[in-house]
Write a structure and sequence with these properties.
The complex is a heterodimer of chains A (211) and B (290).
Chain A: H1 3-6, H2 15-28, H3 32-54, H4 57-74, H5 85-103, H6 127-131, H7 136-143, H8 148-158, H9 164-171, H10 175-196
Chain B: H1 5-17, H2 22-34, H3 40-48, H4 64-74, H5 121-128, H6 132-177, E1 183-187, E2 196-201, E3 206-212, E4 222-228, E5 234-240, E6 248-253, E7 261-267, E8 279-284
Antiparallel strand pairs in B: 1-2, 2-3, 3-6, 4-5, 4-7, 7-8
Helix pairs in contact in B: 1-2, 1-3, 4-6
The chains are: A mainly alpha (211), B alpha+beta (290).
């Protein structure tokens, strides 16, 4: 299967995601060929994310290997309501890559991460229907609506593996400003993505948007 | 110290981005697990973050990585048993479902066996004051405990030896799999269950196989490995016997076409020329995707 072509179309609730869940059920049942299938589907994205974070090909390979072993061990712990199988798998890759990166920093304390299902990566309300249809170009376009400093804060956190305190120190910016940039950047991203999928007719939640 | 809802909301963006210090992250998780108030901001911010993954430049991994990943997984025990369903989650028969934003309970490591050991001085003093019969009982118990420890030690050593042998076999497969032009096969029984393992077929004709969870052979029985070409009959590769640990490694030389099936059967005696059905375990040899 062409992973590139499937890249952004595997939205939660899509037929492709149903197929992923079937594969994951087989993995949870101990079927090695299912793990191979999952690898074939997502190897490129998994490796690309690991490489983006670690900037080291050999380390990225270790991360991908570690992540798929983690998926094998914990397939039964996947929680359907918290996002697609793809999101679940790639979040494992992301966390393992960040952990690998932080291990290189002797002063960093590693979080306890036996739990490979990050609670934050959830897809609530109408978001799946909207976001699941988005293509890569629309996502990149949404990213460009962020200001440079917002994008920098988010990239240092998400791909650089830095904590908000470390970002503040590294960029010489007050912590409160870093927090604000992250919040506003994420809100801008969501607004732009919802705009790209506006046919869902959903407005932006206001409960927390103006905080 | 208990975190307030306002503090949790303030930390939500960094939490979603994984940018909290570990102590802060733990405090947020604890808050979400116990707070009765809704926290939609965590779900909302968390829902945005995965889309950053779509912005990375795509880079194809080296072809050899697949063999590494599959070998590493093949060396693993079967996946953990499904956890007991928690409130809001599916029963154990299927994948869990749920919408809670709180983290799943971490899986505890298997508890180490607890072997009673002799106590300290105070316990020893009390023991000396006991009656002769009690002393004898204690001595017998001590002997049994020592015997138990020795047995446990032997069992652990056997398990360790078995795991080490299998790891070595997987490493040998991996070595061949990593070579240019090699094919790799994941072997399993019907429906992906039963005896499983990994095999590599090198372009130089070397064939190596690592298997686990095989039933032990008895008497003259052997497991015979076969190459089955897409349009040809089964070609015997040779046989091997399996002990009580259920693991096996096997190496031979053969010429294998692309897409060949590697299969194992259980034969009553060595040198079988036709396979005795059923096939115990099989897999299709494929070259790593480029």
């Amino acid at each position: 299967m062409s992973e590139t072509g499937e890249r952004a179309r595997r939205g939660p609730g899509s037929p492709a995601d149903d197929a992923d869940r079937e594969v994951l059920e087989r993995i949870a049942d101990g079927q090695l060929d299912a793990l191979e299938e999952l690898y074939d589907r997502y190897r490129t994205m998994a490796y690309s994310i690991a490489l983006r974070i670690t900037n080291d090909g050999a380390l990225a390979e270790d991360v991908v290997q570690d992540a798929f072993v983690g998926a094998w061990r914990n397939a039964a712990r996947y929680v359907e309501g918290r996002g697609s199988v793809k999101t679940w798998l790639l979040s494992i890759v992301h966390h393992r890559a960040v952990d690998a990166l932080r291990r290189r920093r002797p002063t960093s304390e590693l979080p306890e991460r036996e739990d490979v299902t990050p609670p934050a990566l959830t897809l609530p309300d109408v978001w799946p229907e909207v976001a699941g249809r988005l293509l890569r170009l629309e996502i990149l376009s949404a990213l460009r609506t962020l200001s440079d400093v917002q994008r920098e804060a988010i990239e240092l956190a998400y791909f650089g593996g830095l904590t908000q305190q470390e970002i503040a120190r590294q960029t010489g910016t007050p912590l409160g400003t870093v927090k604000s940039r992250m919040r506003l950047g994420l809100l801008a991203m969501r607004r732009a993505l919802l705009g790209a999928g506006a046919d869902a007719g959903e407005g932006e939640p206001t409960l927390w948007a103006d905080r | 110290m208990t975190m307030s809802c306002d503090t949790a909301r303030d930390l939500a963006p960094a939490f979603a981005l994984g940018a909290l210090e570990p102590a802060e992250e733990r405090a947020v998780r604890d808050h979400l697990a116990t707070c009765g108030q809704p926290h939609p901001e965590f779900e909302a911010f968390g829902g945005i973050v995965p889309y950053f993954d779509e912005t990375v430049e795509l880079v194809e991994p080296p072809a050899s990585l697949k063999g590494r990943v599959l070998a590493a997984v093949a060396a693993e025990p079967r996946p953990r048993a499904r956890r007991t369903a928690r409130a809001g989650e599916a029963p154990s028969g299927g994948l869990a479902t749920g919408t809670a934003a709180v983290p799943a309970v971490p899986i505890a490591a298997p508890a180490a066996p607890v072997v009673p050991l002799p106590g300290g001085e105070a316990r020893e003093d009390r023991t000396r004051r006991r009656s002769g019969a009690a002393t004898w009982l204690l001595r017998i118990a001590a002997v049994l405990a020592i015997a138990g420890l020795a047995g446990w030690n032997l069992l652990l050593q056997a398990q360790l030896g078995s795991a080490t042998a299998y790891d070595r076999a997987v490493a040998a497969v991996l070595e061949v799999a990593a070579r240019q032009g090699s094919q790799t096969a994941i072997l399993s029984g019907d429906g992906g269950r039963g005896p499983r393992g990994i095999a590599a077929v090198g372009s130089d004709g070397s064939v190596v196989l690592a298997m686990r969870e095989l039933d032990p052979t008895v008497g003259s029985q052997v497991y015979e490995a076969w190459l089955i070409a897409p349009h040809g009959g089964p070609v015997p590769l040779g046989g091997f016997q399996v002990g009580s640990d259920g693991t096996a490694s096997f190496a031979t030389r053969a010429t294998a076409a692309k897409g060949v099936i590697i299969a194992l059967t259980r034969e009553p005696a060595p040198d079988a020329t036709t396979p005795t059905l059923p096939i115990v375990s099989k897999g299709v040899a494929t070259a790593p995707s480029s």
